[in-house]
Design a protein that fits this description.
The chain has helices at about 5-30, 65-85, 90-110, 135-155, and strands at about 40, 45-50, 120-125, 130-135. The chain has one domain. By secondary structure, the chain is of the alpha+beta class. Helix 1 packs parallel to helix 3 (about 90-110), helix 2 (about 65-85) packs antiparallel against helix 3 (about 90-110) and helix 3 packs antiparallel against helix 4 (about 135-155). Helix content is about 55%, strand content about 15%. Strands 1-2-3-4 form a four-stranded antiparallel beta sheet.
Length: about 180
Amino acid sequence: MTRARRLAIAVSSALVVATVDQVTKAAALELLSTDERIPVLGGLLGLQLAFNAGTVLSFGSGATWLLTTLAAIVSFVVMPIAAFRARTSLWATGLGLVWGGAIGNLIDRLVAEPGFGRGRVTDFLAYGDLFIGNLADIALAVGAAVLGVQIWREARQNGHDSTPAEPPVEETSSR
């Protein structure tokens, strides 16, 4: 598969993820409430509107501008370079998922309240009483898992097992 095709896979995956993420967030803003949870799978999964200024589990909520800057660097510098260098279609897909998730949440940080660069990410998928996320978060997690599996597979193929090797035994000369 050519480099251009792998790049196209990464870019199209990112665009699909970012678009679906933004469409579902718009629907959540229109249809859901922050006060009421709609059960989907009993108490395991529900729909409830939430706004997150931070990252996973609201970490970093006091540094939204920093998170926005990092997301912009990842979205417009790191991911395009990585996608251009993708070695396989699976690498390209994993990178595209991460890229799309980063862009989806970056859009919120740029355009949502309270203002440019300080916007809160729209969340609506309630996982029990653990946390509330969105589709961009799922794409980020799945993409990271795909990339992790690829790294592991390539290490195994190249003979770099994660098991520590036995230290070499030094031979002693007898005089």
